[in-house]
Amino acid sequence: MDAHSLGDLLDVVGEPSVRLHTAPSGLTVPVTEALLHDAHAPVPRVPGALLLAVGVRARSAGPLVRAAAEAGMAGLVVRGEDGPVEEAQEAGIALLSVDEDAAWHRVHLLLASAIGARPAATGPGDARGELFALADAVAAAVGGATTVEDPRQRILAYSTVPGQVTDEDRRQGILGLRVPGNPQNTEQYRTVFAAPGPVRLPALAGALPRLAVAVRAGGETLGSLWVVDDGRLAPDAGKALAQGASTAALLLLRVRAARELARHQDGDLLRRLLDGTADPAAAQRLGPEPVRVAAFVPDATVSAPDDEQTVLRLLDLVRLQCESRYGRRACALLDGVVYALLPAPAERGAGRGRGHEERHLRLAEDIVRRAGQALRVPVRAGLGDIVPSAADAVASRRDADVVLRVLGPGLPVASVSGVRPRITLLRLAEVMDGQRDLRTGAGEKVQAYDAGHGTEYARTLLAWFEAGCDMAGAAERLAVHPNTCRYRLRQVRRHVGVDLDDPDERLVLWLQLRTATDTGEGR
Hints:
Blueprint lengths: L3 E2 H7 L6 E4 L7 E2 L1 E4 L12 E4 L9 H9 L4 E5 L5 H7 L2 E5 L5 H12 L8 H19 L3 E4 L5 E4 L9 H9 L6 H12 L4 E3 L8 E8 L2 E9 L8 H38 L16 E8 L8 H20 L4 E4 L2 E7 L10 H22 L3 E5 L9 H14 L6 E3 L4 H14 L2 H4 L2 H12 L3 H10 L4 H8 L3 H15 L6 H14 L7
Parallel strand pairs: 4-5, 5-6, 6-7, 16-17
Antiparallel strand pairs: 1-3, 2-7, 8-9, 8-12, 10-11, 11-12, 13-15, 13-16, 14-15
């Protein structure tokens, strides 16, 4: 395998997953593989390897640093922040760390996948191809048609060995890439996942018996292998299936690692596209289709026990929901806001674009509802406008960000087109706030009078304007008698000197009062 440099590896993995504490030989030192330390065996001589200090406390890892350096390794990875930095500098190897509660098998998987990655590297599809080859190999060894499934009963691969007996359940599963659901199936899966090895299962209605085994790695269930049992399986079918499960575990870990690596790379690219630092040409990785940026943020007025953890959980939830609707989607966390890139392929007809907006709004509303329940914090979502491609995502992000500013409890989700008047008022308020001559006049006098006398003239004027200068309509909005509105407007004319018969003065007064109040209903 060609070597990555340490710098390449950190670019792919990066913080907060892995932190670099020292690199005395620089970031160009080659990294060839990641190894798990075995406390019962000598440190092997593997030049360029990263050694994961399994079973060794960070503060006690000095001897392991020196042993790794003598073995020609590129660096040592410890758990926790109190690793032997000085010893690593003296030994001339890099010292890296992961979180104290990080699972070593996951760290190993992440690093091994990143070390094997290249810009033109193969992705999850190649490991899936190997799963199909494995299904054929298991089917040949066991003597029955085989499928590889994930824990959610989705079929990832299936054998195509000629002449093997099949049944309708297998055919339907392959056509839909999912096992047909029924209570008996559910019970059989419980049996398989609870068993330590292969189990024989009786025939269900209209189907043949099965031989099945759970696929596990480090105590985690990754999926299962299922073989159609037509009564002619090999004598050692159970043993062969168990061996197949071991190989399947490695391949499923590779599929997951490739998927996670692709997610990390897509998220990093989206983050750079949104802040305007990415090369637009790199956006082709995210596809050439039109897209829309959706922004999600916890309600800032509600304090969460751990705001940072809340946002990270929101990122996971947004990614999960987007991927369940659209497949792999680029999601990123930037400045406390979770952003997702939603596909919006060109539509035909006069109403083109509306279908996407409705679907995207439904998705955002669903995410906001689920997130509010899971995080116990209200969440708001803003949708930017559709842009030609991911290269233009920064423009859609600006739209989404300003939508978030005009949302409130009465309107937690909206698209930029749905709140255009509110955004216009927000922008006008920003302009007027910076121009003293635009803020002075009747509006300022009315607000000053209210502040000094406890009156509600500004609120009454706004209700009257928004009712089309209809007294009954204004009274209904304020829940008062029309005569009360008439009295208040006479007092405005008397004490403030506003000419409410002049349409220009009414327009300026409305604009000053409207932009001085919240632009969102119920905020």
